[in-house]
Amino acid sequence: xxxxxxxxxPDLMDPEWQRHAxxxxxxxxxxxxxxxxxxxxxxxxxxxxxxxxxxxxAVYLARRPDSxxxxxxxPAATTATTTTTTGSAPTELPDYAHVDLTRPFDKTPAQNWxxxxxxxxxxxxxxxxxxxAAQVAQAEDQVKKAITAAHLxxxxxxxxxxxxxxxxxxxxxxxxxxSGVQGYVTYLADGYHLLPVAPRLNGTLTxxxxxxxxxxxxxxxxxxxxxxxxxxxxxxxSDIEPFVRVEADYIERIGNSWxxxxxxxxxxxxxxxxxxIACSASKSGFLMPEFGEPSFDGPSVSPDPGRYDPAKPVPTxxxxxx
Length: 322
Description:
Layout: H1 10-13, H2 15-30, E1 36-42, H3 47-54, E2 114-115, E3 120-122, H4 133-151, H5 154-157, H6 163-166, H7 171-179, E4 200-209, E5 214-224, E6 243-253, E7 264-275, H8 279-282
Parallel strand pairs: 3-4
Antiparallel strand pairs: 1-7, 2-4, 4-5, 5-6, 6-7
C-alpha cells in the first residue's frame, strides 16, 4: 500500500502549478465577495420651504469655522500628483493583479481619468434660456465646488465635517440637507486612509432651463479612491479601490421671483452606488475598502457597466442588505 497521500503527487508539487491553483482558488473566492451599496436620496419638495421663507420664518445656521464667504476653502484631497496612463483601460476592476501603490489606478477603469474635479467635463458656458453665459458659468462653478466638497475635500473625507458642502447651498436648502447630509457626501471609515494619490473622477455636467428662475444642472460621475493597505495583504485593486457612482440634479435659483433665502443652489435628486466596499461600514454611512472586511457571505453582485461608466445608467441592485 502506498504510504504517500495525493498531496505528494509530483504534479501537485510543481511550483508553477501551485501558483496557478492558488490564483484560480482566489479568483473563485473573490467571485462571491463583490460588495455594492445602493443609495437613493431625493430632497423634499421645496414648495413648503419657500412658503415658510415668504412667511418670514428664518433659518439660522452656524457659520463655517474657516470662512464667512460660503466657499469651501479646502482643496481637493490630494497630497501627490500622478500622471494618467496611456492605452485602453479595462471596463472591470481586476480582483487579482499586481498593484503598484504609487500608481494604484493603473490597469483599472480609472486608469485614464483625470485627478479630482478636473475629470468633470462641461461644455463652454453659454446663454441658457433667460440666463446669461456668466450666470451659467457661475452655477456650473458652484456645482463643481459642491462635488469637490462632497467627495474630494479632506475635511469631509477624513474629518467628517460637511460644513464646506452645506455652505454652498441656499439657506433654505440647507435645512433639508443637514438632516441627511451623510447620504450625499463621502466619509472615510475611521482608521482607514487614502494613499498619497489624488482620487480620480470621470463624468459630465450638463445645463438646461427649468421652471421660471431656475437652471437645472445634471451631473453623472464616478469617483475612484485608493486606500493605503498598510500591512494588510492585498490580492488586487478591488481590495483597496472603492468606486462611488453618482447621478444627481442640482437646481440654481436666480432672480427676484425667489425669496432671498431661497436663491442659490439646491439639490433636487441624488442617486448613488458604491462598489468594492466593506458592507459593515457602508451601512453606517462610511466608506471602507474591501480589505477591511475580508469575510462576506452576501450574494454576489452581477457585473454592471454603470458601476464604472458615467455614460451608463446607475445600477439599482446592491448586495449589502439595503
